Amino acid sequence: xxxxxxxxxxxxxxxxxxxxxxxxxxxxxxxxxxxxxxxxxxxxxxxxxxxxxxxxxxxxxxxxxxxxxxxxxxxxxxxxxxxxxxxxxxxxxxxxxxxxxxxxxxxxxxxxxxxxxxxxxxxxxxxxxxxxxxxxxxxxxxxxxxxxxxxxxxxxxxxxxxxxxxxxx
Length: 169
Known about the structure:
- It comes from Rhizopus delemar (strain RA 99-880 / ATCC MYA-4621 / FGSC 9543 / NRRL 43880).
- InterPro entries: RNaseH_sf, Transposase_5.
- GO terms for molecular function: nucleic acid binding.
- This is Tc1-like transposase DDE domain-containing protein.
- The chain is mainly α.
- The chain has one domain: 2-Layer Sandwich (Nucleotidyltransferase, domain 5).
- The protein has eight helices and three strands, in the order ααβαβαβαααα.
- The protein has a three-stranded parallel beta sheet with strand order 1-2-3.
- The longest helix is centred in the first third of the chain and has 19 residues, at 38-56.
- The relative contact order is 0.18.
């Protein structure tokens, strides 16, 4: 709770524009051949993150990048990759652990899973599942996503009021 309170206090002064510059990362996965490591993580950053930034016209030095506290995220290899690719160290930080109420993308995951649960019957395989995921993900509107971002200052205030405890978010 202390880390959540410290994090909320540090970010309570962020403006809506600051929050809009946040690139959120989060994942759910299953590893068939063992755990992935920092080299796999760097590969994902090199391909997926950089591709997304390019697609949306974002510059590395102008964004804040949020990642989890997994050791591969804080490894020497990952830190070196961020530095070599023009990310400001103070703009690349680890999110406070066990804080889904402080991570807007968690709400999108929740709503995505709810939408998927409304399908009649299970997906008939990986391709069918991927098709459903893609359809539902693409149905989120810009306004829905922005509403979560706009709520971040209120989320920080709620955590401060709760002395680091959990909130209604």
